[in-house]
Amino acid sequence: MNIEDYREFCLSLGADVEEKLPFQKFKNGEGVLVFYIMGHMFSFFDCNDFSVISLKCQPEGIEDLKAQYDCIGNPYNESPKHWIGINPNTAPDDLLQELTRNSYEIVKAKFAGKRGQSQTHLSHAEREHTRPKVKYTKK
After folding, report:
1. Sheet strands side by side (includes 32-37)
2. Half-sphere exposure of residue 57, counting CA atoms within 13 Å on the CB side?
3. Helix (H/G/I), strand (E/B), else coil: 124
4. What are phi and psi of 125, to 5 degrees?
5. N or C: less crowded end of the chain, CB within 10 Å?
6. Model pLDDT, residue 136
């Protein structure tokens, strides 16, 4: 997926998605495009080097995803406990879209309750809804 298609996909996730270039004052950060939901990041990448997109992910699935897909590794400048990095040049489009949607849903669910929109603890059904649908199987 190319950079413009990915940008359009992120913006299509909801009317509440915002995009910003928040790190312009930092060396090597001026080209980092960040997508936000409720003021919190769910996806970001360097526009000058579109080789890693950093996404939120459930910690219990990260190692399995890395083992299953060569296109998934560590995120850029974030904790590998809660974030993954995915190479958009080698990742299948459906996987990239699914993991991006998952990241969006994780952040939205986490912060919805803090804005008075829903409960702060997710029900079992809501947790299942925010899990990526990729199968966590080894190669």
Report:
1. 17-20, 32-37, 40-46, 49-56, 83-86, 72-73
2. 31
3. helix
4. -65, -40
5. C
6. 43
Mean pLDDT by runs of 10 across the 139 residues of the chain is 97 97 92 96 96 97 97 93 97 98 96 57 46 47
This prediction's pTM: 0.81
The β-bridge partners of 55 are: 43, 84
Helix (H), strand (E) at residue 98:
helix 93-112
Read off the DSSP letter of residue 87: -
61: helix, coil or strand? helix
User: What are the beta bridge partners of residue 17?
Assistant: 37
Find tokens 């080698």 and name the residue: 90
Please list the residues that pair with 32 across neighbouring strands: 46
SS3 85: strand
Compute φ and ψ for 136, nearest 5 degrees: -90, 75
CA distances from 49 to 28, 85, 120 (A): 11, 13, 37
SS3 content of the chain, % helix, strand, coil (to 5): 35, 20, 40
